[in-house]
Structure formats: structure tokens, C-alpha cells
Amino acid sequence: MARYIVRRLLWALLMLVAVSGVVFILFYVFPTADPAQLRAGRQANEAQIQAIRESLGLDKSVLTQFWIYLKGVFTPFDLPGTDSHGPLYLGRSYQSNADVKDVIISDLPATALLVFGAVIVWMVVAIPTGIISAIRQRSLLDRTTMVTTLVFISAPVFWLGLVALYLFAQDVGIIPIFPGIGSYANADSFLAKCGTMLLPWAVLAAATAAIYARYLRSQMIDVMQEDYIRTARAKGLPENRVIGKHVLRSAITPIVTLLGLDVAVLLAGNAILTETVFNIPGIGAETFNAIKRTDLPMIQGITLFGAFFIVTLNLVVDIVYAYLDPRVRYE
Amino acid sequence: MAPPASPGRLFWNRFREDRVAIFSLGFIALLILVAIFAPAIVSLAGAPDPDARDTAALDPLFVTPTGPSADHWFGVDQLGRDVFSRTIYGARVSLIVAFAATLLATVFGVIAGLLAGYYRGWTDTVISRGVDVLLAIPYLLLATGLAAACTLGQTSGGGAGCLGGLIKPGLGVVIFVIAFTSWTYMARIVRGQVLSLREKEFVEASRSMGASDLRIVFRELLPNLTAPIVVYASILIPQVILYEAALSFLGVGVTDQPSWGQMIAEATPVFSDAWWYMLFPGLALVFTVLAFNFVGDAMQDALNPRKRRS
Amino acid sequence: MSESNINDDSETKGTTMRMKVLRVLIPGMLLAAALALAACGGDDSTSSDTEAAQEQYAAPTEPPADAQQGGSLDVVAASDVDYIDPGAAYYQFTYMVTAATQSPLTAYAPADVEESTPLLATELPTVSEDGKTVTYTLRDDVEFSPPVSRVATADDVKYAIERSLLPGVPNGYVQTYLAGVEGMDEAIKEAQDNPTGGAPEISGITAPDDTTLEIELTDTSSIGVIGALTLPVSSPVPEEYAKEFDAENPSTYGEHQVATGPYMIANACVEDADNPTDNCDGELTGYTPNKEIHLVRNPNWKASEGDFRPAFLDEVTIQEGFADTVSASKKVLTGSHLVNGDFTTPPSAIKQAATEGEEGQLTLTPSGGNRYIALNTQMAPFDDINVRKAVIANANRVDLRNTRGGELTGPVATHFLPPEFPGFEEAGGLEGTGLDFLASPEGDPELAAEYMKKAGYESGKCEGPECEITMVGDDAPPGSDTAAVAEDQLEQLGFDVNYQKVAHDIMYTKFCSTPSNAPEVCPNVGWLKDFNDGQSMLDPTFNGENVVPENNSNWPQLDVKEVNDAINEAKLIDDLEERNQAWGEVDTLITEQAPAIPYIWDDQANIQSADVAGVINKSNANWDLAFTSLKP
Q1: Cβ C324–A182 below 8 Å, yes or no?
Q2: Closest CA of chain C from A44, distance in Å
Q3: Confidence at residue C35, expressed as pLDDT on a 0 to 100 scale
Q4: Could you tell me if C203 and C69 are in contact, meaning their C-beta atoms sit under 8 angstroms apart?
Q5: Fewest C-beta in 10 Å: which of B180, C156, C501, C516?
Q6: Whether B58 and C402 lie within 8 Å, measured CB to CB
């Protein structure tokens, strides 16, 4: 087990470096604009731009720049003679000059509340829906559910958000029952914040709940055709024990894997559309603002940070899996 | 006893049973016609050009958009532009991007998958690990960031776009960015298929007869890969449509012609008042994506009858 | 100062800005708008509606006779003040706070349009015979809030002005308008050489005794000086208290400020409102950036004949972070004890206020600002005045104006000085300067073709490689709507327009305000007065001598000797009537040069809850917190 963990850790570390490299190439080498000029902002003259170019190390070769960049990301302490402080130094915003890491950390709570709330909503909706549909396969209920879920999968989340606001938001809605746009920033208590998240949770969870319900259903249908389930049935086990004990257990395992990845991707900023529509000051909304100002270090920093999140969560999932299923360790 | 049907015939027979899928296929065909003949349809309907501003249609005192009327079936936007004709024209961007980006992602994914699966060894390692790395990057952020970066510098003179100006801002960047972040699953699927196929007898036979790699790939492997490739591509299309809409909504999509995502973005500041500007492009998106999803589902079922859905 | 729109809120903090700050301007409405439209042959069918509407929504500049004392008001805002330090504040929304908490020498009372009213001074300043000495006499009963709690003197005003030169106090206007003060250049240099060495001495500002402040000038720019001293920078700052904060760069006096107005930003000294103490740390407890500003009564302020502010309310809380202005507006309209703060009341909310709101909930005030589409006079094809005239003649300015919300958001501009502003009537009032290319608000394509022919384009349309032009505009409405209409109109004249959409602040900083990177057309620029004098409208925006490599605000880069000379002369006129006449003439001269398409004189729409008796400060075009009260 220890060997396996070490191997996975090393691999994850390698992934992190590789991801940093890819992100660096994509954002530094692909586009043609001059980062120094972008950073210089309002009052710059040629001398200042030159100074910034030097302080950012833009006068050095691309490889040297990448090395400096890597050092900033991976050194766990302040690097003397540079801007870098602490681990995960992702650069500074062109716009506000704020440390990207600090910005991400201050945005994380809102995104976390949004994502974890939505996870609860979609699991609570998806699991029963999937089970019922699988048991009542081809019934009217099953067919209706499957079409409904497909509609939710087909609707753009930002549009769903606007429709939900139009229908239910307290400030602009026809049936004003839920807190509306921008109420998050002004909610004081945790409970109030959760209240303002009700609509965003529902909207963010809709498509994923639909996907999970469909996935769970097809997994269960597959499992129910397995021989050992037939055997269990033949032995006369009551149907709800067959479903509850055998079918569900093996059908839900892949869902949990999926969940880990989905949570990581959403925390990493893929909740950008929901956050934008509902004005939730999270990582996605930060990215949106950065896009509007072509604040590349910010976009790049958030992307890399998100990638780290995904790699780390994958690592955790792998290790947990290996713990649960010893065969994996010797694959 | 009738002779056994070919796999393609079998597939089609199974697909045909799904009436919703057939209906969806018809809808998609209609949509393609709408996109191609958008100008004719708009003028036939007596609607104005999508960029024409009918300022008289705006509220005279507040100059706010007005809703559906005889002159403007779907109402007008803040500038007095006809929402109906913009929605019709919007089909163009959605479909062009859907097909082009899917095609590009498919070609790229198939090539990568074939190389990895056929040559194995270090080729496989490089490609598969590369895919792992790309999959670890949040795709929506990567795409918006890339699209923004590729549009940068356009006004300051100098090179605009990406890859030394090879990819131009606008439709080109959108298609490239979507394809770039979507080919990975296709590559994985193809690789897996090739890995199992290359051990099959007929491939072995062909190799022992001294067939070249190219010949094996094109004569033996690809024909057997067609079905999974087509099915996966058909699943990719609706995702790409939503993806394009999201990029447009975030302001990094196509800007020089109407698109549904961009219309919804423009409707955001006024949606509480002008519901029509948000509603119609949204419905167009939902119906289009739904149709593609129905078709994709049916194709998947037809290919793999054991896993039939509803 | 240049105008910004709250749709593009996030403003960079901490950057010293020369002459301007992106300042929020909120569209509203003006009494004379209907007249303008009627006069220009505007939309007749609605002008009577508009006229009625204008009377209905006229901004109240006096509290009701039975205004009640006490109560607590909430201000709903999208984002934060620019600088909490009154010495650096340069933003309409911040002025809303300083007008309640500070006492400049003189200030604009709610109804003031031309001249200010004495506040810390006992009367308007006297100017010597030769026009080079300005003397203020100060009141002796104005006391700083705790923990300073002493009478403010002329020395405190001198210090306040001097500290504003420190790099740590990024003031945006003192160096411009007080350039004629003796010893100014030396003081600026001293401050820059030694940013943390304390405020530099300005030899031309002296305080012979506690209640006399004398300002010696090297020229006759006294009116500009007096105008700039109506701004918060002339509010006294106690040197012995502020010194340690000003030794830092940036200065932290803002977070430790003391007040001289009826209100103060809460600090620990007034936690127990009935027993204020001086035995406390002066650090503000009532200010959380981007979140909240909490104003309480200043226990050391006493109603006095010398102070025109009645101060009805007990408490004001400014809540920030309402980024969605539609829902924020609805909150104000349907809520209780609320007014809007920094944001644009969007058209849909104006509509709601007008159609569903109670009387008085919506008020419209001319903002003292303009918006125009700048044509780059240094680049082909707009280096040809006839091409510029053609573009202006062809423009349908009613359409352009309507992209900001129509008649209720202000009249179609015909020149640059805004209505109810000194020099406005002299420049031709609403009707304009009588120039043919600005005669038709809906555009005159024939005249445009004629001018194109004069410019050498035989077909009447632009032809040739120089007709491929770039335009950099907003990426969000309403600016992007204006730009889209402008693009349309330019294409009618044969131009091939490449419209680049960027965020509003980027449009300024990276493109339109950086001449080396400026495009041919900037469709979303505009200017908001600093104080009520033509200099603050026209000098930074059209004087060729003010074109600077960065942070430029002469967007058309107009550099015509005749105009420059006229501006420089007008700056030095110290007779008010003569001066206004001169600025009116300057405005006409500029308009004749066709540097831009002026399309709106913004009015500002402010909204309040039905139970608020708000008073608008016309000069700031926003709520005056020291005059606003709650309805009984």
C-alpha cells in the first residue's frame, strides 16, 4: 500500500509540473500580446514598461521564464529578489496587482458553498430518481423521467438561471419566493447565505442531477442483468434487498468516482456560468471579470489552480479506491 | 432463412424503431435548411434584417425593448433589432461551430487514438499522458482563457489570434478552442478500441501477409471503428453547441454575427423586463440540443442493444 | 473627470491619476430636455409627455417644511468609493459622503448652480484688485470630531491642501487647478523627491491668523482656484494628528480621518453615542472596503448660521456590493428608508419607477456631463475636418442618445458645455451653435455627402484604404449599444469599421487615453465637470497642450492653436460674467472644429423609497445626505 501511495504521489507531482508547463505554453507562448504593456496600465511610459518587463523577467528567454514560473509555483517559501511569496505563487493581476493566490483564497468560500450545496441537491434528486427509473424500467414514469432529464441536460445552465430568476426571484421574479440576484454579497449569517443559494443550487444541480440519474439507471440495469443478481433473486431474496444490497452497491461505485471529478472541476471554476448569472462572488465570477479585462495572469492562475485541484482530488480518489479494492494496487 | 443483414443495416433497423429519434433527425434537417436559407426565410416572413434597427419599435418614452407584435413576432431587443430574425440567423453559428468543431475534434482524437493504440510503447505513453494532463485542466476556464488570449492584441496592432496568426479571432478561434478541449475523450475511446482490435485475427493475418501500417489502419481498423466514432461524435455535437453558447455568453465567442448564446448574454441586463429576448434564443438552444441528444442516445442504443434506454 | 459607467465597475485602486478618475455618471433627466427636442425638431409625438414627465420628476433641492429629525437611512451601492481619504476623493459617489462629513471652505448647497456657498469660510473669498491674491475668512466655531475635538483653523486648511501633493494622497485635481499658486512647482517637486517626508510647504498659501487664509497667485487664475477649493480637498486636516499617517505611502489618514461636518464615519470614540470620548484610537470602525460605510452624527458638530446643512438623519449606512443594478433599483423602489448610491438606474427601473412608483420616487437632475464619439483628429481620414463634419452631419444623434435610455436620460447634445452650467447659454443653449452639420439631430445624409465631396470623395462616401478604421468601445450595454449604432452610421458613409469590444476601463486606459494606441474612433467617452466652471469641462478635454502620452483625456487629440489660445486666455479671466462668455465662445470654437459627435448631456436618475424625503444636490447630481430626511 505504501509503495502504491508513493507511486501515485510521484505521478501526481509529475502531473502538476506537466500541467504547469501546458498552461504556461498556452498562455505565454500562444498569444501575441505584450504582458508588460498589459501590466503597465494607466500611467506607464516606455521606461516603466521596460522596468516591468525586467521585473517580470520578460526580457529573459522563454525557458528561463518557465523555470522562474515553476519555482514560484513550487517553492514553499518566499523567493528573495522576486515578487514570489509562499507556495503556489501564481503571479499578480495585471489589473489590481493583487496576488492571484490571495484573490483565489478570498473567492473560494462562495464557490465552495455553491458547489457543495449543489452536490447535495443533485445527489438527493438523482439517486432516488435513478433507482425508481431502473426498477420501473419502460414504465410511463421511467419514460417521462428520462425525457425530463434529457431536457435539463439540453438547457444551457446560464439560461436556466435567468429563467429561474425570472420566475422565482424576490427582486425580479413573477412568483417572488427565493432571494434574487446579488443577495449573496449582502447576506450576513451563514444561514442567510444558504438561503440566497437556493436558486443557484437548484440551477447548478439540474443538469448534473439529470446526468447522474440517467447514469445510475443504466448502471443498475446493467447490474440487474448480471448472473449473481439472478441467482440472488432465484434464491428467493426479497426484491428490495436485492436492489438495496447488491444492485445499488455495485452500481453506485462508479458514480462516486464521477462525483469526485465533478466536484473538483466545479470548484476549479467551471461554476463560472452559474456564478455570473447569480452574481456570486466566487472563483468563476472572478474569472469572468478577468476575461472582460483580459487579465491573463488571473485567468492563467485560476486555471492552474483548478488543475491542481483536479489532480489532487484524483489522487485522493485513487488512494481511497486502492484502499477499498486491493486489486488496484497491483494493476 | 434470410441472409444475415450487414452491421450498418442492423444499426439502421434498430435506430429506425426509435420514433423520437427519427423525429429529431427531421428537426435537425429542418434546422440545417433554416440555417442555409436564413435570409430567404426571414424575408419570406416579412421580418427585417437581423442587424436592422427599428427604433420606432422601441418604447417611445423609455426606449426599452418591446415584446412580440405583428411586426416583430418575437419582439425587439434594446436596439430595436428583430429577435425573430436574429434567432433564425443564430442557427448558423450554432450549427457551423457544432459540425466544424466536432469534425476537428474527431479527426484529431481519432488520429491520436490510432497512433497511441496501434504503436503502443512510448507513443502511447506520450499521447495518453498528454490526454491525462489536458483532462486535468478545467476545460471551460482553459477555453475562455485561450479565446480571450487569442483575441488580445488585435487592436494594438501586431499579431492577432493564436499560433502566430494562424487562427483568426472570431469563428476560427471558437472552433479551434472547442475542438482543442474536446478531442481527448475521442482519443481515449479510439485508443481502447484499437488496442483490442489489433490483437484480432484478421489484423494479425493482414500483418503476417506483409501489409503496411497505413493499409492496416485504413483497410482493417478504421472500418471497424466507424460505428463508435460516429456515435461518439453524435454525442459530442450537442455538448459542442452548449459549449459555443457558453463561450458566447461569456463574451469570448463569435461577435460579428448573431448567435444564441450572445443573444442571451445581451438579454441578461434586461431579462426581467424583456423576457422575449432571453426566451426565444434559449428555447432554440434547448430544442436543438435536445434533438441532437435524442439522436445521439438512439444511436448509442442501436449500436449497443443490450444497454437500451427508454 | 471622465465618465464611467457602473456596468464596468471594478476600478483600479491606488493609482495616481492625473486630472481624472473614472467617475460614475448616472443618466437622468433635465427640465429643458423637451424644449431642446422641440427646438431641434425632435420627436414631437412624445415631447408633451416628456415635458410633463420632466416637471413630475424635477429634483427636489429643498427639504419639506415639516421635515422630521432623526431616523436612519440606507444607501444602496454597487461598489466602493474611490478613496476614503477626502484629500484624494475624486468621484461623485465619494462626494456624497464627504458632503456630509467634511466642511470645505465653500461648497455647493443643493440648489447652487453657478457660485458656491460659504461653509468653513464666513463668506465667499475676496480677490485683490490685481486678481492675484485670494483671501478667505474662516469661522471659528467648527470643531473636529473625536478624537481630535478642537477648533479647526486656517493652518489646518493649508495643511490639507499641502498634503494633497504627497504621492501617498493621490489627488487628481489640485495640481491642475492650483497650478497658478505661488510655490506650487517647488512643493510638487519636494513631495515627489521625498514621498514620506511630510507635506511640502506651499509658499503661496499662508495663514496670518487662525481665521484668515491667503492664497498668492502668479497669474489671474483665481476662479479656477476658488472652484477647485469647493472640492473636499479644502476641508481642514489637523496636522498634529494626521502627520504620522501621512508619513506612510499610501497615507493611512483616510482610515483614521476626522470629520468637520454634521456626520462622521464611525470610530471607536463614538461607540457610545451619548458619551463620546477623545481617549480612543481614531481608526474608523464604520468603513469596510467594498462592503459598508457607516455614518453617525458628529458629536462636535453644532447647527450654526454659518453651516447651511440641516442634518435631519441620525444615521446613514451605505451598503455596497449590489452589483446587479436592476435588482438593486427594485430593492430601493419597493423597500423602506433606501436611496440609490453610485449606480445607474437602468431603463427598466426608470420605467418601473415612472409607471408603478409613488410620486417623488424618481428624480431627474442634469449631471453636468456630456458624452461624445471622439474622432481621432491626428489620424487619416479624420485629420480632414470635412470628413469629420460629414460624419457628424450624417449621425442620427437621437438614435445615439436613445441607446442610453431616451429622452428621460437627457437631451441630445449640440455642443460640449452641459445645460445649467456656466457658459451653456453663451454657447447657444440647447439649440446649439447654429452649425449646419449639427443642425439636424436625426442626421442629414445629403449634407454629409456634400462634406465628403469637399473632402475629395467624389461619390460622397469614403473610399480607399484610409476608410478601414478601428473603433474601440464597450463590451457591455449601454456603451456597446451606442457603439453598435455608431458603427452602423459610419458604415452608411462608406467606412469599413472594425469594432473592438473591451471593458470600459480598458477602453480608456489601454486605448482611447493612450494616444500611441488610440483607434480612429472612441464611441464611449465623456466628461463630467469637476466644479461649476467651463475650465473644468473644456481644458482637460480639448486643449492641445493637454495631450499627454498616457492617461490622456483629450480623446480627439484636438490640437488647434486658436482653440488652445482661447482656452488658456479664458482660464485667466477673473470676472465671472466675462469668463462665462469666454467659455461659451471657446465651446463654439471647439464645436466648429468638429472633433467629436456630441450626443447626450446626461441627466441623472436617482431613486428613493416611498418613505424618504430626499433632497438632490444639483451640483453633485445625487442625494445630499445632510438634507435628506425620512417622511413622518
Answers
A1: yes
A2: 7
A3: 33
A4: no
A5: C516
A6: yes
Residue from C265, C115, C151 nearest C625 by CA: C265
β partners of residue B206: none
Q: Sort out which chain B residues have CB atoms less than 8 A from C50's CB and list them.
A: 61
Which of A41, A45, A171 is opposite residue C15, by nearest beta carbon?
A41
- Counting every residue written for chain C, the total comes to 632
CB-nearest partner of A42 from C475, C476, C551? C551
Q: What is the pLDDT of residues C423-441, one digit of tens each?
A: 999 999 998 888 999 999 9
Is residue C277 within 8 A of residue C146, CB to CB? The reply is: yes
Test C549 with A171 for CB contact under 8 angstroms: no
- Binning chain B into helix, strand and coil, the percentages to the nearest 5 are 70, 0, 30
- Report chain B residues whose CB lies below 8 A from the CB of C468: none
Report the pLDDT value the prediction gives residue A327, as an integer from 0 to 100: 63
Q: Do B310 and A292 touch (CB under 8 A)?
A: no
Q: What would the pLDDT profile of B183-210 be if each residue is shown by its tens digit?
A: 998 999 999 989 888 888 888 888 888 8
Indicate the burial class of B103 (C-beta count within 10 angstroms; 0-12, 13-18, 19 or more).
Answer: middle
Chains sharing 3 or more CB pairs under 8 A with chain B: A, C
A96 touches C: beta carbon within 8 Å: yes
Nearest CA in chain B to A136: B310
Taking contacts as CB-CB distances below 8 angstroms, the residues of chain A near C512 are none
Main-chain dihedrals φ then ψ at residue A32, nearest 5 degrees: -105, -10
Task: Give the pLDDT of residue C22.
Answer: 32
| Average of per-residue pLDDT across C544-548 | 88
Helix (H, G, I), strand (E, B) or coil at C271: coil
SS (H, E, C) C336-405: CCEEECCCCCCHHHHHHHHHCCCCCCEEEEECCEEEEEEECCCCCCCCCHHHHHHHHHHCCHHHHHHCCC
Question: B 137-196 residues with CB below 8 A of C?
Answer: 154-156
- Rounded distance between C-alpha atoms, residue C54 and residue C48, angstroms: 10
Is C331 in Cβ contact with A181 (below 8 Å)? no
Lowest mean pLDDT among C6-10, C163-167, C173-177: C6-10
CA dihedral over C521, C522, C524, C525, signed as positive or negative: negative
Q: For residues C273 and C76, is the Cβ–Cβ distance under 8 A?
A: no
CA-only gyration radius of chain B, Å: 23
Establish whether this prediction's ipTM goes over 0.95: no
Rounded CA-CA distance C493/B46 in Å is 27
Task: Decide if B58 and C326 are in contact by the 8 Å CB cutoff.
Answer: no
Q: Which of B153, B246, B297 sits opposite A156 (nearest CB)?
A: B246
Number of neighbours of residue C193 by Cβ within 10 angstroms: 9
Smallest Cβ–Cβ distance between B63 and the set C326, C402, C475 belongs to C402
Using one digit for the tens of pLDDT, what is the confidence trace for A8-49? Answer: 889 888 888 888 888 888 777 666 556 665 555 433 456 666
Choose from B19, B24, B127, B133 for mutation: most chain A CBs within 10 A.
Answer: B133
Give me the residues paired with residue C117 across strands: C107
Mean pLDDT, rounded, of chain B: 86
> How far, in Å, CA of A59 to CA of A49, rounded?
11
CB C286 within 8 A of CB C267: yes
CB nearest C549 (choices: A45, A172, A279): A45
- Residues sharing a CB contact under 8 Å with residue A214, sequence separation 6 or more, in sequence order: A130, A146, A149, A150, A153, B309
Per-residue pLDDT tens digits for C27-81 = 333 233 333 333 333 344 444 555 666 678 888 999 999 999 999 999 999 888 8
Residue B171 C-beta-side C-alpha neighbours within 13 Å? 13
Q: Around Cβ C48, how many Cβ atoms within 10 Å?
A: 11
pLDDT at C492 over 90: yes
Nearest CA in chain A to B297: A150
